[in-house]
User: Which sequence fits this backbone?
C-alpha cells in the first residue's frame, strides 16, 4: 500500500475513533476518582485476560477500591463491564463497530494505539499522583518477583485459582438473559429448564492471521470438519449444543442449521451476550486453549470442562480435563504422551517434530471418555493421572486431569 494511502486511512480512523476514545477516557477518569488502585492494560490482551486478570487482582487488592482498565481493540466482551459485582472493570475503545473492514471492526493501527495508550497512562499518572497505578507489565513483574517464576508460569498463576478459593460468579443483565431465554425456548420448542439440563458448550478458536503473534497458529482448534462427527454423536444423545469463539460461523451456517446448533448467527443475537449466557448455563464445556475457557471458570458452580489441543504441554487449569496437541518425529511416528508431557512440558514447538491437531475420531473418543467420567465424578473430586509426570509440571501443581483417551492414542 502506498504511504500516502496508509496515512489517509490512519487519519480517517483517528477522526472516527477519537470522539469514542475521549468519552471513554472521561468516564473512566471519573470512576477512578474514588479508587485507590488503578490497573491499566494495553490492547494486546484478549477477552480471557480481562476475566482472569481482573479476578486475580480482586483477590490481591480490595476490590471496592480498585479499577481495572483495558484498551479495547474490538476483541473484548464489552458485557464484562457489567458482569463483576465487587470490582470495577472499564474498557477504553480504540476501535469502532460503526464501520467494518473485511467484517472486522475499524481499529487504530498498532503504532497509533500505543500512542493513545501512552497518552492515557501519562494523564492518569498526572491526575492521580498519590494512587497506586500499575500497568500490565508492572503487574506481571510483581507476580514473577512474588512467586519466583518465569513468564509462562506467571501466566498460569494469573489464570488458576486455588481449589479452596472460588471465583464469584459473573452475571448477565436480566433483560438480556430473559431475551435469550425466549429465543432459545423458541428455537428448541421446549421449556428453558429442560434445555439447560443438557447444554454442552463448545468454544472454538481460530487464530494465526497476525504475523506479530506466530504462536497463535499453534493455539488454534482443529478444523471445523473434524468436530462434525462429535456434534452428530451429541445430538443423538440428546445434548443441546451451544457454540461461540473466534471462527466466522457464517461460513458454516448450513452445517450449524443441519446440526441444530445454537450460536449468535443462528439466533441473530449479539455474540458477546450469547458467550456469557452459554458459559453461565452449560453443564459441560469443551474448549480450546484460549481466553474463552475463562468464562465457564467464572461461574458458580463451574461446569465440567474439557480443553482440547492444548499447548504448551504443561497447560493446566484446576479441575479440568486436558488433551494436548500431538507431535510426530521425522519419520511420521507419534511421540508418546509421557514424553511430550515430561520432556517438553514448557514447549510450543519442538525442533524436528511436526505438531498436529486432533482428527475427528480422536476428538470423539476424548469427548466420550470425558462425558462418562463427568457423569460419575464430582467436579472437585480427587483423581490420579494414568502416567507419572515431571514434578515441575503445572499439571500436577494445579491438579489437572489429562485425558486417558488422549494418552492411549499416543501410547
Assistant:
Amino acid at each position: 500500500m502506498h504511504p500516502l494511502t496508509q496515512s489517509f486511512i490512519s487519519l480517517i480512523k483517528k477522526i472516527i475513533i477519537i470522539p469514542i476514545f475521549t468519552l471513554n477516557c472521561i468516564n473512566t477518569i471519573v470512576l477512578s476518582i474514588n479508587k485507590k488502585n488503578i490497573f491499566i492494560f494495553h490492547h494486546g490482551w484478549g477477552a480471557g485476560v480481562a476475566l482472569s486478570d481482573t479476578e486475580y487482582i480482586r483477590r490481591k487488592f480490595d476490590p471496592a477500591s480498585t479499577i481495572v482498565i483495558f484498551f479495547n481493540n474490538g476483541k473484548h466482551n464489552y458485557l464484562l463491564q457489567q458482569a463483576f459485582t465487587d470490582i470495577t472493570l472499564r474498557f477504553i475503545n480504540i476501535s469502532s463497530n460503526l464501520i467494518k473492514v473485511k467484517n472486522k471492526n475499524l481499529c487504530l493501527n498498532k503504532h497509533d494505539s500505543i500512542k493513545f495508550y501512552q497518552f492515557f497512562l501519562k494523564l492518569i499518572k498526572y491526575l492521580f499522583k498519590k494512587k497506586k497505578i500499575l500497568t500490565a507489565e508492572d503487574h506481571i513483574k510483581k507476580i514473577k518477583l512474588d512467586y519466583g517464576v518465569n513468564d509462562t508460569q506467571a501466566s498460569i498463576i494469573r489464570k488458576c485459582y486455588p481449589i479452596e478459593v472460588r471465583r464469584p460468579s459473573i452475571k448477565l443483565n436480566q433483560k438480556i438473559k430473559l431475551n435469550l431465554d425466549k429465543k432459545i425456548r423458541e428455537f428448541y420448542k421446549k421449556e428453558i429448564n429442560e434445555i439447560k439440563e443438557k447444554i454442552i458448550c463448545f468454544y472454538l478458536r481460530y487464530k494465526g492471521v497476525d504475523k506479530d503473534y506466530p504462536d497463535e497458529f499453534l493455539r488454534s482448534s482443529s478444523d471445523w470438519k473434524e468436530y462434525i462427527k462429535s456434534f452428530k454423536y451429541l445430538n443423538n444423545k440428546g445434548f443441546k449444543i451451544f457454540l461461540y469463539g473466534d471462527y466466522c460461523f457464517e461460513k458454516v451456517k448450513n452445517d450449524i442449521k443441519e446440526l441444530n446448533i445454537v450460536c449468535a448467527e443462528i439466533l441473530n443475537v449479539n455474540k458477546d451476550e450469547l458467550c456469557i449466557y452459554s458459559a453461565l448455563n452449560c453443564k459441560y464445556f469443551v474448549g480450546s486453549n484460549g481466553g474463552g475457557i475463562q468464562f465457564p471458570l467464572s461461574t458458580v458452580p463451574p461446569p465440567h470442562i474439557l480443553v482440547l489441543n492444548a499447548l504448551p504441554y504443561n497447560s493446566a487449569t484446576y479441575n479440568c480435563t486436558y488433551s494436548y496437541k500431538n507431535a510426530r518425529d521425522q519419520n511420521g511416528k507419534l511421540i508418546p504422551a509421557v514424553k511430550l508431557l515430561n520432556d517438553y512440558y514448557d514447549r510450543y514447538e519442538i525442533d524436528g517434530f511436526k505438531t498436529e491437531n486432533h482428527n475427528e475420531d480422536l476428538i470423539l473418543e476424548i469427548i466420550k471418555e470425558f462425558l462418562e467420567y463427568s457423569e460419575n465424578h464430582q467436579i472437585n473430586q480427587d483423581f490420579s493421572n494414568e502416567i507419572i509426570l515431571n514434578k515441575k509440571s503445572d499439571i500436577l501443581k494445579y491438579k489437572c486431569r489429562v485425558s486417558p483417551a488422549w494418552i492411549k492414542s499416543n501410547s
